[in-house]
Amino acid sequence: MGLIDHQYPEGKDSRKAYSDVGVDYDKLDPVKEMALELFEPTLKYPEKRLGIKILGTGLTACPFDLPKTLQGARIVLNVEGLGTKNKIADEVYKVDKELAYRGYTCVGQCTAAMSVNDQAGIGADTIVYGDIAAAGVDKWFDDHRRCKALLQGFRNAADQGQFAIPLGETPALREIIYPDTLDLCGASVGIIQPPERYTDGSRIREGDVIFGISTPGPNANGITKIRRIADCLKDGYFTKMDDDSTLFDGVMVPTPIYSRVIMDMFNKSVDIHMLQPITGHGWAKIARAKANWTYKIKNVPEPLLVFRKLVEWGEDNFDFTNEENYKVWNMGVGFVVIAPEEYKDTISGCAKSHGFEAHYLGNVEKGDRKVLMEPFGFAYTPK
């Protein structure tokens, strides 16, 4: 059967092409080129730090060479999504595009952080990351400043974590994703070297100290609840807080990349027994290790201003018990490190050198598997 070349009569040129009903690649290709140009400098990071050479970009997949010095290293894969934080930028975009651009840069970094921090949570150092920014329609990519702002967020994450972004994907998925937003996610590959750095909680011992590494914002968890609270406020995300900043300012803070501070602790010979990013399930995640230990929380840092204001603004319509708050939000602690007390000064010093604070939260004790929030009188018991 030959090729089909149907000739329409004169006057039938209004029939729809694939660009009308599916994807217009003329809109997507410039964004892909923008991403390749912006991310190209990140390709040097794996080679500079670890001798891992990225061999090519712009192909169907990204190969890289592991040097002999990394033979025996464990290879780690993670896939993670952002959630709904970009919906805040989408809402603000309707009334203040300049402010929204800053929001899109924030969510770009947050998207990468969700995967990269999960890698750090088992002792892995991220080598490469690949993003997926899926739109409902290709029209979303018409605003190149918005696209550049989002991509800059990914680049900021790569610069902080010192990993490469050699590839990504920008599909338009009509009738699957809402036309005015994106579904943001990505995957990362990392290494555990030496392999003994693999951290799964099996080395936890009685008396270990629970350290909470600070975060400057809500990161990317409990965002839908924040969005619902904003819906109830007259000025929405422009509602002022006590320091004259807005709710938007308090929420749209980029999630920190914790991999460098964690690797710094390993390099300074800290005997880390457990690592855990505080993401979904909040402080209940401290008991993620399957063994029967009681994680007695004795000290709770003062919550960030944004959380205090959210409680104040939403107390008439939402559950704001401490049991709810510390399970939905990080409340100012973005990452947990469990280690023997003798390393407290080193952990604190590493955190400070990377712009964080290491809070003493409590200790590990013998007992049932639970997080005992002693100042509040309740416990989280993971299933």
> Strand portion, in percent?
15-25%
CATH topology of the largest domain: Phosphoribosyl-aminoimidazole Synthetase, Chain A, domain 2
Task: Give a count of the beta strands, DSSP E runs of length 2 or more.
Answer: 13
Biggest pleated sheet: 7 strands, mixed
User: Secondary-structure element sequence?
Assistant: HHHEEEHHEHEEEHHHEEHHEHEEE
Low-confidence stretches: none
Our count of helices gives 12
How much helicity do the residues have?
A: 25-40%
CATH architecture of the largest domain: Alpha-Beta Complex
Mean pLDDT: 93
Overall radius of gyration = 23 Å
Amino-to-carboxy terminus distance: 60 Å
Give the structural class: alpha+beta
CATH superfamily membership of the largest domain: PurM-like C-terminal domain
**Count of structural domains:** 2
Q: What topology, given as strand order, has the largest sheet?
A: 8-10-7-11-9-12-13
Shape: globular
CATH class wording of the largest domain? Alpha Beta
